[in-house]
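User: Before I run my own analysis I want an independent prediction to cross-check against. Here's the chain; please return only the C-alpha cells and, at the end, one sentence I can use as a sanity check.
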Amino acid sequence: MHKKSIKMAFFSVFFTIITILSGCEPLLVLDPKGPQAERQANDILLSIGVMAFIVIVVFALLVYMLVKYRASKQRADYEPPHIEGNLWVEVIMVGIPVLIVAFLSYVSVQSNYIVEAKPKGYEDTKPLVVYASSSDWKWHFSYPEEGIETVNYLYIPTNRALEFRLYSYGPITSFWIPQLGGQKYAMGDHVTTLHLAADVPGEFMGRNANFSGKGFAENTFNVTAMSQEDFDDWVKEVKETAKPITAEKFEELLKPGHLGQQTYIGTHLEFSPPPSGHDHGEESSDTPESETHTDSHSGHEGMSH
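Assistant: C-alpha cells:
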C-alpha cells in the first residue's frame, strides 16, 4: 500500500507539471533572432545545464547517504567511532564549487565583452543609428540619418548592425527586446549605447524592463524587422505622408500618459538634443546630423501608424 501511494503521488506531480507547462508561452529569451540574443540564450542554457547537473548529483548523494547510513538496530549504549575527517572529501566539497564559479565567471565576462561590441559578423558594416528615448510612459525613436521619428514602434532592417543610443526624459528605464538582446538602462544624464542586430524578419516585442511608475506595465513598443529594401520603402513612404514634429508637439508627447503608434518627419534631436555625456559620463564624439541645424517646420499632428 505504501509503494502504491508513492507511485500515485509521483504520477500526480508529474501530470501536474506537464499540464501547467503545456499552457506556458515560449520563453522569448530562448528564441533568439539575432547574434547578441543567441549568445545570451546559449549562456542561459549552459547555466541551466550546470545547475541541473549539480542538483542531480546532490540528490543522488542524498539518496545514497540516506540508504547507506539509515537507522539500524544498535545497542542502546552504542558509540560511533571517532573520525577526524577526510582531506579528499573536504578538497572536493570546496574545490568543485570554486571551479564551477570560476568557469561561469569566465563565460559571463567573455560574453559581456561580446554583447557590448558590434554583433558578430557585422563588425565592418555601417550600423543604423537610432536614438531611443523614454518618457512617462512611451518610447520615442529618432532616426537622425533618415530624418524621421516614431513613437511606440520601431522598424529595423535585417542583416545590418543596429546602434541604439538610449536616454530618458523621466525616471530610469530599461530598453529591452528579448529576442534581439539583453536590456540596458536609459538615464537622463548621459547616453548609453546598445548594439543589436536582427538576422531574420519578423515581429518582436519590446518593453521597459525597469519599474518606472504606475504606467510601467503598458510601457511597451512593437518591433518589426524587414529587409533593407522594405525598410528604405518605409522611410520613403513616411517622408511622403507623415507630418513634421515640432518643439510644441514634442512637449505634448512628453506629458505622462499612454499613446498609440505615431510617425513624424524630422526628429526631436533638432530642438531637444540628447545629454552630452556618453555611456559612463564620457563625452560623446558622435553628434547626429540633425543637431547641426534648427527645425523649420510648423506644428502639425503626427500621423498614426
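Sanity check: The chain has a mean pLDDT of 85.
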